[in-house]
Every structure is written in C-alpha cells, then in structure tokens.
Design a protein that fits this description.
The chain is of the alpha/beta class. Helix content is 35%, strand content 19%. It has helices at 27-41, 56-68, 83-92, 132-140, 144-150, 154-164, 186-203, 235-252, 269-277, 292-302, 336-353, 367-374, 405-420, 448-474, 515-521, 550-555, 557-565, and strands at residues 73-77, 98-100, 103-107, 122-131, 173-178, 207-208, 215-221, 225-232, 259-262, 285-289, 307-310, 323-329, 354-364, 379-389, 392-401, 428-429, 436-437, 492-495, 523-526, 532-534. The strands form 4 sheets. An 8-stranded mixed β-sheet has the order 2-3-1-4-8-7-5-6, sandwiched between helices. Strands 11-10-9-12-13-15-14 form a 7-stranded mixed β-sheet.
C-alpha cells in the first residue's frame, strides 16, 4: 500500500535500526486505519447498537456452510430504499436471504440464472467471499495485493461470467467499481483496483475497458466482509424498472391486505409484480382485458391467485369500497376518442371500487386525455413522474380517492371552474420534455437511460428553437402549422413545385404575413414525414410562431453574428416552421445568409 495509508503517528526509528521503506505499512497501523474505516461505517451509533443481533450467528453459519459446499452465491442490492421489500420478494421466490452489509446474499442453487427481481437495482454473481476472521486477517495483512490476487480463481470467474451475461465473447471487456465508495478511502480503492487488474491479467484473458465494458466487477467492501462479483452492464434498465416499481408501489401504499384490481391487465405483468413485492398479500386480485389470448397468458402467469375475466374496464367484480389500490398500464394505441372513453370508464370504475383514501396508480402516454377524466371525480393528485419507455415519454400518475365532504365540495368547485374555462384540461408545460402535461411533476433523480433519451429530445428541441431564432434575427419569414405536443418541425421551401429557389420577394416592412400572402407567393411546406402540405389547406388566419425565451436568443447571438458576416448574394432563403406557439409571426425583409461552413442552398 502507498504511503498515504500509513498512520499519522509513525513509530520512532532507532539509530541502529535501518530505515524502513516508505511504502511499508505495519500491522498496527493498518489495523488502526481499518478500525477508522469501520467506525465511519457505523458512525453515530452506540456500542450496544453495534453489537451483533441475535440472528447474526445463524446468518454467519449459513454463509460458512454455503462456502464449504461451494454454492453459487448472488448478492442483491437496491438504491431505492427497498431493502425490506427486496427481502420479502426473495423469500416469496423460495430463497433464504442473508444480510451482508447493506445487501442481501442468497444461494441460487441449481438455477443457471437469477430470477427476475423487480426491487433489486444490482444483482452480482459472486466468485469470492471473505467474512469474519478471514476478513480481519486480510485487513491487517502487509501483503494486501497478494492476498487479493489469490482470491481470483479461473473456474469461479468463468462460472460467474456465464451466470452474469453468458459467454457471448471469448475475451470480454470489464471494468471495476466499488459499492462503498463514500466510506472507502481513495488510496485503498486504488490499491484494490490495481491488484484485481493484475490478478485478472494473470488468470484470464479479459480486457479492461472503462468506456465500453460488457461486465462490471463489483467490489463490496463492508465493515466485516469483502465480496467480489460480476454483474451485467445492462443495469440501466434494471434501475429504471426498480424506480418505476418503487414509485408505483410506494405511491399506492396498500398495506391493509385488501383487494387489488387492474382494469386492463393484458398479460398480467403489473399484477405479477404486485403479488411478488406487495407489503401484504392482497385478499383478492381481479383483472380484466378484452383479448382472450392475453387473459390466457395472464392466467398461466398468475395461476389461481387472480380472478380474470373479459371486460372493457368498466365492470370490475368487486364491491364498492373493497379495493385498496387500482394499478393499470393504460393502452395508448387507437383513436383519441376511444382512448378518452376508456380512460373515463377506468377512472369511474376505480372511484366505485376503491375505499376511502385508496390509491389509483396509472401509467399513461396521453395525460391530457386522462386529466379530462380525473377532474370529474373525487381525486387528489399525490404525485406524477415522467417515464421513458421505448423512446416514448409517458407519465406515472398516483391519485388518492377523497371521501370527506369538504374535499368533495372543493373538487366540485374546481371542476366547475375548469369546465367554465376555455381549456377543459389543466395543463402545465414541462421544461424537460417540451410538451403539455396534465399533472405536476415531482423532481427526483433520474436514471441514466432516462437522462440520455431526455437529453436527446431536449437537444433536438433546442436546435430547432435556435434555427427559428436565427431566422427571426436575420429577417427570414417564419411560420408553420402547430403540431401536437409543441414539437418543432423544420420544412423545406418550394416555389410552384420547382426545386430551385427564386429570388427573395420584396421587403415587407414589419408586416404580418397572413395566409393570403403565403398563397400569393405560392409557398408550400414539406413536413418531417415527407407529406406536402399546401398553405391553402390551412385555416384562414396568421401563421403561428413559437415564442422564444431570452436565454435561447442569447445562446445563439455569437453564431448569428458570424452568420451575418458571411452573408452572400445568391444563397438560398430559409423557411423554418414551428409549432406550439401562439401569436402572429412578425418579420422584416427576408435576408439570404450563409452559415459558416455550409454550402449554397443548405442550412
């Protein structure tokens, strides 16, 4: 270990004894450092609280028995505060979990792969486990690097690799990560990482790659244990699923063991999840769906635990006030009128079967249609979270049924105000997605996959907004047809069906370009889908223009100035169409400009 691991109180050297190397660490010093790290792990705890619980001896004996019999072990952990729910899910799956630090260790037995766990953020297949006295001897050993390299056995590594992701390639790429980075010293992490890399290089022909790993070697360094395991890098989907499960189930809060219903159960995935990690087993599970094939699949998945019957979501086989929660993944396909009718049936039936303060958790891709159905019932919004599924942004909404008379009067008054307003559905513009959402969003940490998708959508939206701003500043006529979701679109300009662009029209001194002016110049807009939309088909009025914020204008000032310096005669005019704004488009004389590095006729 490097010099930084040495204790500050160095022992005094005698005049006759030779000077010790600078990298040498005595057993007493390293034991003191290990005690400091362990104390930081259990900070603000009394000595009696740090004592082992009554079941710790049985758990340690079980771990020792698994090690003697060489059972394949799996370490399951969660980052969403679902430790108890994860333990409950493991027990209901027929596994006996053992607490190991902040995670749960189980033996997967004869199962080649681990069962699907909805509440687990990370599942690591262990190939080395050091506990109790062996871990204490490891922490005080002077040759820590040699001890760590001895833990790497080729047979155990290959077995863990096969269980984690399968042998898809002979030379997999891996990286090393620590589950306890906040409590482990940086220099100690560096020593452990370098030792494991050297040991793997000697034992197996794997490649270390931090940018494109295929598997991750997780180091679980706890107060009294060290576990090394392999996990698949496809953990972003697991984190997304775990976060969705945590929000939906904790938002439902059905801890009384009552009935549970799903008006559009499909193949029964939502009900299967509820049966596995529900705090208390529901007394009844009811599901409906219009498709007979889906009901057969759901019956095979759920078995006799659920009562499934065909239906359109409007007549659940439950008494009024019998259900604790209603969970549903609402269909998004079909005509808007059909979806709106389905949402009204589901919400109305949920209001009938739910008890007082019961929860309705819905995952919907059209929240504006859902809001129109919610405002007519005795509902109070508990929270709403944006979700990403197959590159589509949906919304997870948690509602609570109100039974108090004052709450009912407040809901009726709010519904009357909304009905009298021009816009029937309460909408709120989301700054993250650029679309109208019908419920307030709760801010929280988003998974890596959601950040990537949202950043891509935000990048496209910001880029199109910059193009509109540049066109407005340069005096290019802008306009377009408003599209649903306030998504911008860029169109190509054609004059009288010809590909070439004619000279710019005469200057329009701060006039509002109406549809008649557009038809006079013979303009037509070609949208993103390739369909040619004539201006003559639009409704009479002024072309809408998306309102730009001051931040977006300041963001492109420098590039706009550079564009105006490179203005050249003969370059093509630019026609940009956007949607989602309101108000007419005020433009000056069209100016033909050429951005830096662009060819003539292209933007």
């Amino acid at each position: 270990p490097p010099r930084s691991l040495q204790h500050r109180a160095k022992p005094a050297r005698s005049a006759t004894s030779p000077a010790a190397p600078s990298t040498e660490v005595t057993a007493a010093n390293f034991r003191a450092r290990a005690a400091i790290a362990a104390a930081a792990k259990v900070a603000q705890c009394s000595p009696t609280a740090r004592a082992r619980p009554s079941g710790a001896g049985a758990s340690a004996a079980r771990l020792q028995r698994w090690r003697r019999t060489q059972e394949p072990l799996v370490l399951c952990s969660t980052e969403q505060g679902l430790e108890e729910i994860l333990s409950l899910e493991l027990r209901r799956s027929g596994l006996a979990p053992v607490k190991l630090g902040s995670a749960w260790c189980v033996s997967r037995g004869a199962h080649t792969r681990m069962l699907q766990l909805y509440s687990a953020t990370r599942v690591s297949h262990l190939f080395a486990l050091v506990i109790d006295d062996e871990f204490e001897a490891l922490t005080i050993a002077e040759d820590l690097a040699t001890k760590l390299e001895a833990l790497l056995e080729p047979g155990a590594l290959e077995e863990a690799l096969d269980a984690a992701r399968g042998k898809q390639s002979k030379v997999p790429r891996y990286d090393i990560r620590f589950s306890s980075e906040r409590t482990l010293e940086p220099k100690l992490r560096q020593v452990v990482s370098e030792s494991l890399r050297r040991g793997l290089k000697k034992q197996v022909p794997w490649r270390f790659d931090e940018k494109r790993p295929q598997v991750t070697l997780w180091v679980h360094w706890g107060p009294s244990s060290l576990a090394l395991g392999l996990a698949s890098v496809l953990s972003a989907e697991r984190r997304n699923l775990c976060r969705l499960s945590a929000l939906g189930l904790l938002g439902a809060e059905a801890a009384q063991g009552g009935a549970l219903a799903d008006p559009c159960c499909g193949h029964g995935k939502v009900l299967q999840l509820a049966l596995r990690i529900w705090p208390k087993e529901p007394s009844r599970v009811v599901g409906q769906d219009l498709r007979q094939a889906a009901l057969k699949t759901a019956q095979k998945t759920l078995g006799s635990a659920a009562a499934l019957c065909p239906g359109d979501g409007g007549q659940l086989a439950l008494q009024p006030g019998e259900a604790d929660a209603v969970l549903c993944d609402l269909p998004n396909s079909g005509e808007p009128e059909e979806c709106e009718q389905l949402y009204h049936r589901v919400v109305k039936e949920a209001a009938r079967v739910l008890r007082s303060q019961g929860r309705l958790v819905l995952l919907c891709g059209q929240p504006e249609l859902l809001a129109a159905a919610v405002v007519k019932g005795p509902w109070k919004t508990r929270g709403a979270w944006p979700m990403t599924r197959k590159a589509e942004v949906e919304q997870l909404v948690c509602l609570e049924k109100m039974e108090d008379a004052a709450d009912r009067r407040a809901v009726e008054a709010a519904s009357k105000e909304i009905a009298d307003a021009p816009d029937a559905a309460p909408r709120r513009r989301s700054r993250r997605f650029g679309k109208d959402l019908a419920f307030d969003e709760k801010k929280g940490r988003r998974c890596a996959r959601c950040r990537r998708v949202d950043s891509l959508e935000q990048l496209v939206h910001s880029t199109l907004a910059e193009l509109v701003t540049i066109a407005n500043e340069a005096g290019v006529p802008t306009g377009g047809k408003a599209r649903k979701g306030a998504q911008s679109q860029v169109g190509s300009l054609r004059f009288n069906g010809e590909r070439r662009l004619p000279p710019a029209p005469a200057p329009l001194e701060s006039r509002q370009i109406s549809v008649a002016d557009g038809e006079q110049h013979g303009m037509a807009l070609t949208g993103l889908g390739g369909s040619r939309q004539e201006i003559s088909r639009w409704k009479p009025g002024l072309l809408p223009l998306a309102s730009q914020s001051k931040q977006e204008i300041d963001m492109v000032k420098k590039w706009h100035k550079a564009s105006r310096k490179n203005c050249q005669t003969g370059c093509a005019s630019v026609f940009v169409g956007t949607g989602g704004g309101s108000g007419p488009a005020r433009v000056r004389a069209p100016v033909r400009f050429k951005p830096p590095g662009a060819k003539a006729g292209h933007l």
